[in-house]
Amino acid sequence: MIQLIESVKPSIVGVGLYDPLAAPKATLMATGFAVAGGDLIATNAHAVPELDPSRKQNIAVLLPGRHSSRVYEATLVAKDEVHDLAILRIRGHNLPPLTLSNMEVKEGLDIAFTGFPIGTMLGLHPVTHKGMIASIAPVMLPVANVSELTAAQLKILRNPYSVFQLNATAYPGNSGSPVYDVDSGEVVAIINKVLLTSNKESALTHPSAITYSVPVKHLKELLRSIR
């Protein structure tokens, strides 16, 4: 695991908002990782911030550094709200991309994921957790009022897809983290949500240890759409 983690960490970035009028100017919201040629960053669609043009805001990609992080402007090039995936492009810097797996994932597969579980609270330092694929099951949406569902959510309800449940604890900042096979280091899924026991704050104080991830085949489809 030591060599594997060392090889994965250079590909991991923070995803957030850059606001020149705010303090701090860069705010981390989630995790992302380099794919394809290294100038593309995969993350969750829900992690991409909405921008206020009047404040000259930009999507930010944060790169960990030994003493301080570097911030790069990013643009959104593709988004799949049904599978909660997005691809960003950074200019002027290429990162070592992670390899996307072609394997047939089965329950019991040993995995790890790397990201920023609690944001920048303790500095921008990637954290790795280990676990396994505990279950492969159709995605579920909590439905309180059908009339309030988005078009993407309605599409999921009509045609649910399978997600991987992990027996490892993820936190809000882990959204967009790559889930990879510990033997090959290849990405098999992308973390997209954590089961909450009560409210959003409980994800930090009383984590459920139930984490869901989107199979990497959906990321591959999104990448093909921009090539």
UniProtKB/TrEMBL annotation:
Pfam families named among the record's database cross-references: Trypsin_2 (PF13365)
One Gene Ontology biological process: proteolysis
The UniProt record lists the keyword Nucleotidyltransferase: no
UniProt keywords, alphabetically: Hydrolase, Protease
Stored InterPro entries: Peptidase_S1_PA, Peptidase_S1_PA_chymotrypsin
Protein name, as recorded: Serine protease
Transport is among the record's keywords: no
GO molecular function, one term: peptidase activity
Source species, domain of life: Bacteria
Organism: Echinimonas agarilytica
